[in-house]
Write a structure and sequence with these properties.
- This protein has 248 residues and is of the alpha/beta class.
- β4, α4 and β5 form a beta-alpha-beta unit.
- The radius of gyration is 22 Å and the shape is elongated.
Length: 248
């Protein structure tokens, strides 16, 4: 199963001057590509990486999502390099890799997302991608066309969507909004973001699942919704997968 946001091609740049270490990371990413859609590019020096990023910036081309930086690099150390990158782009995930724990404090001075000790492993890299996925999920928003106009709605605020005649009602933690979109359209739009169709009339955000009780889904804000018997088994599977990913 491809993961939210990372289901689209996720670009990783590696800056590591030791070929054996770079090769190991590429091998790990190759294994992770069975689960995530990854595009990985390796650089051996800060100069080489900066030239590439400057070109992307000049051409107004998409920046990489994640940059893995060795702290000890020839010509320019990873901390200085990270600060240069951060000036170009505030959204890129910067992760330092090194053999020396004493560099950790300096690493966070450059607004690093994570600090990883060598040697990296498959599980360490997978956990990193899961954590990045969580960050994307927290920030993910959708544009909702309501009868009063358009609004931007954080996905975690959206508890469930119900079908009412020819329109849909979006129920948040504190309000509800009427949309002319169909429930099916929302199902297609949100299926990769932890939403599941429990009934012909209801699409639920798994994030807000509290418990299953007497054929109904009890939600975090206290309400409950009926679930179709034929959907119960698949719902449990989806919920298990959703919770498993959140706990890894």
């Amino acid at each position: 199963m491809k993961h939210t946001d990372l289901s689209q091609q996720f670009a990783i740049y590696i800056c590591e001057d030791i070929k054996e270490h770079s090769k190991k990371i590429l091998e790990i990413c190759s294994l992770l590509a069975k689960e995530y859609s990854l595009k990985v590019t390796a650089f051996q020096s800060a100069k080489e990486l900066l030239e590439c990023l400057e070109y992307l910036q000049q051409e107004n081309t998409t920046f990489p999502h994640l940059v893995l930086l060795d702290i000890e690099l020839p010509g320019m150390d990873g901390i200085t390099l990270a600060k240069q990158i951060r000036k170009m782009n505030t959204d890129v995930f910067l992760v330092f890799i090194t053999s020396y724990i004493e560099y950790a404090v300096k690493g966070y001075e450059a607004d690093a997302f994570r600090y990883l000790l060598k040697p990296l492993s498959y599980q360490i890299m997978r956990n990193l991608l899961v954590d990045i996925q969580r960050e994307y999920s927290k920030k993910k928003k959708i544009i909702v066309k309501t009868r009063d106009g358009e609004m931007i709605l954080p996905l975690q605020e959206l508890v469930y969507i119900s079908a009412e005649d020819k329109y849909a009602v979006l129920h948040t933690r504190s309000n509800h909004y009427i949309s002319d979109y169909s429930l099916k359209k929302y199902e297609e739009q949100l299926k990769e973001y932890g939403f599941y169709r429990i009934h012909r009339k209801y699409l639920v955000n798994l994030y807000h699942h509290k418990e299953t009780q007497n054929g109904k889904i009890v939600l975090s804000q206290g309400g409950n919704l009926p679930i179709s018997k034929k959907r119960m088994s698949e719902y449990r599977q989806q919920l298990f997968h959703f919770l498993r990913e959140d706990l890894i």
